[in-house]
Structure formats: structure tokens, C-alpha cells
Write a structure and sequence with these properties.
The protein has 177 residues and is mainly beta. The chain has a single domain, classed as Porin (Beta Barrel). It is 10% helix and 69% strand. It has an 8-stranded antiparallel beta barrel. A hairpin with a 2-residue loop joins strand 7 and strand 8. It starts with a helix and ends with a strand.
Length: 177
């Protein structure tokens, strides 16, 4: 149900995103370097490849653009339902063209696993959290909506030693100069 809702949200917002302008860069200093902060809320979905597990995803993405085409930042996301994991990443955002961004970086994924056992007429639920190193690579296209607000459809691939997860969604953000 959640995946269907996210898909509908993406389809409904696509015309608005296509009519908006590609996002610009921060103010430039005397050397021509742009400086700005960008904070975005991500709403989307995650699907663990080859396992069929999926869940709704939400998160925050913070970027400091310290050069006209390069930014560094942090991403934290939580995927619910069958995925039940939280991912924290340190990322580099490479602004290939105006609006078009390649994002990559390392991080840690905390995945909660539940085991249900039935003993002597009782149901026992045991949970454990496992941490894995994760690498992310993905793309997004940021559209300016005006007054420093933006919208960005995105797709990312998170890879751990245990599995690969496709994360897609829509980020709604604000630039601070």
C-alpha cells in the first residue's frame, strides 16, 4: 500500500517538477566558488534486491556545497516494513550539470531482524540489530521551485556484504545561502 502511495506521489508531482527550472548553485566568492547549505526531506521506498523485501523510506539529506560543482554532506534514512533498517552515510555530491547530481559515499546500515518462535503455547519475538558497512551510488535531478525551495526525484543503490537495496523517492529541500 505504501509503495503504491509513493508511486502515485511521484507521478502526480512529475509535471510540476518538469515545469520547474534546474536548481542553481550558491553565491560565489571572489574566486568563483559557490557556498550554500541544502537540507532535504526524502519520502520514498526501498526494495532489497533478490529478496523481495520492501518498505516505505523517509530521511534527511544535508549538503554543504563548498565548490561550484562539489558538495559534501550526510544522509540518514529509515526504511520500514519488511526492510526495517536505518542507514547513515557521509556523501559527496558531484553536480555534473545544473540540477543533475551524482551522489556517492560510505556509511553504516543498521538492520533489525525479528525471529518469531512458538514455545509451550507462547509466542516469543526476538529482535537483533546487525550493523554492516554500506556504499551508496545514485543520481537525482534537482528542480528549483522558487524562494530557495527545490524538489528532486532520486534513485540510489546501497550495497552491503549482505545485500543490495534500491532506494528511490522524492526529496523536498531548501537551500540556505
Amino acid at each position: 500500500m505504501f509503495l503504491r502511495s509513493v508511486s502515485i506521489l511521484l507521478l502526480v508531482s512529475l509535471p510540476a517538477a518538469l515545469s520547474a527550472q534546474p536548481a542553481g548553485h550558491g553565491h560565489e566568492d571572489a574566486a568563483g566558488h559557490g557556498h550554500s547549505m541544502h537540507l532535504a526531506l526524502l519520502l520514498g521506498a526501498s526494495q532489497v534486491q533478490n529478496e523481495g523485501r520492501h518498505g516505505g523510506t523517509f530521511g534527511l539529506d544535508l549538503e554543504w556545497e563548498f565548490r561550484p560543482r562539489i558538495g559534501i554532506g550526510a544522509v540518514i534514512e529509515h526504511a520500514g516494513e519488511e526492510v526495517d533498517s536505518t542507514t547513515a552515510l557521509a556523501v559527496v555530491d558531484w553536480h555534473i550539470l545544473p540540477g543533475f547530481v551524482f551522489q556517492f559515499g560510505p556509511g553504516v546500515e543498521y538492520e533489525r531482524e525479528r525471529e518469531i518462535e512458538h514455545e509451550h503455547g507462547h509466542t516469543l519475538v526476538r529482535t537483533r540489530t546487525e550493523a554492516s558497512l554500506v556504499g551508496r551510488a545514485g543520481f537525482f535531478y534537482e528542480y528549483e521551485l522558487g524562494n530557495e525551495w527545490s524538489i528532486a526525484p532520486s534513485v540510489n543503490l546501497d550495497v552491503t556484504s549482505r545485500h543490495e537495496t534500491l532506494v528511490w523517492g522524492l526529496a523536498i529541500g531548501r537551500r540556505f545561502r
